[in-house]
Amino acid sequence: MYRVISYQVADFIDIRNLKLVIAGELLYNDATELFYKSGDAKYIYLFRYGAVSFFNYRDDEIKSFLDFLRAHCRNWFSQGFSDEMRVETGSPENRIGHNKIEVKNSHHDVLRMIMLNVTQSVTLDYYANQTELLLEETNSHTQLLAKKGTLHISGRNLKKFIGKTLLIKNRIAENLYIFDSPVETWENEELDRLYNELKKNFDLNERFRDVSEGLNIVRDNLELFKDILQYRNSVLLEWVVIILIAIEVIHFLIAQFFRV
Q: 158 lies in a domain?
């Protein structure tokens, strides 16, 4: 029985430089991923979006590699997210359970699909958590608006808020295989079937929709906040113009009075 365990450890992993320093047999790589065989029945999978997956690694080996990896990451998380699955090879047929999968063979393409799905699961957990934090912050402003009819957020903070929301949406779209399967599955029916069964087991589509709906709610609220701030600034500008005109009128009247 083997174990796959994946971590979301940072916002970004510099896989370009890692490729130059990691020892092991590089089985797959592209601009965003590195997949290595690092020993007898041991594999490691690195993702540019801040995730890493281990197959058949001991806890002390994982800790040692994460300590090494930290120097190649941006915005390392003090408390990361993790997910794992047990893997049994040599089964008569592929069977997927809640936290265990049985597969007919242990070819590295099969193991990579398993590691990929476990990683996407933990990454969606991270994005779901970030979305929940955005929703909580949005709701605090919405509740204040409902109770007091006022909005206590600056234009600068609102722009940062909008940026966070867009960043999460873009990262999900760029990094996760939510709608399209990996290229390797296109010409391998069995591998494609396994990938889709794993995706279904982890509820990736449903969880993605939950995150997407949450981000849409945040976006709609932010649009409302932006309109309120624009209206407030417009009203303020109108009062400034009125005051300036009043000052000019007063100045003119005083000048006319002293001239007389």
A: yes
Per the structure, the complete domain to which residue 46 belongs is given by 2-220
Number of domains in the chain: 1
Q: Are 68 and 38 contacting, i.e. CB atoms less than 8 angstroms apart?
A: no
Structure tokens at 93: 């047929």
Residue 30 has phi, psi (to 5 degrees) of -150, -160
Neighbours of 68 (CB within 10 A): 12
The number of C-alpha atoms within 13 Å of 103 and in the hemisphere containing its C-beta is: 24
This prediction's pTM: 0.78
List, in order, residues 6 or more apart from 214 with CB less than 8 Å away: 128, 131, 132, 134, 135
Would you place residue 42 in the very low, low, confident or very high pLDDT band (cuts 50, 70, 90)? very high
What's the confidence (pLDDT) of residue 253? 66
2: nearest Cα among 101, 117, 74, 75: 101
73 in a structural domain: yes
Strands 73-89 and 95-96 come out as: unpaired
Contact of 158 with 222, CB cutoff 8 Å: yes
161 lies in some domain: yes
State the pairing for strand pair 73-89/100-103. parallel
pLDDT for 45 equals 96
- Please state the length of the chain: 260
Cα Rg of the chain (Å, integer): 27
- Quick: pLDDT tens for 3-14: 999 999 998 999
**Residue 4 three-state SS:** strand
Report the C-alpha gap between 57 and 174 in whole angstroms: 28
3-state secondary structure of 52: strand
What pLDDT, on a 0 to 100 scale, did the predictor assign at position 48?
A: 92
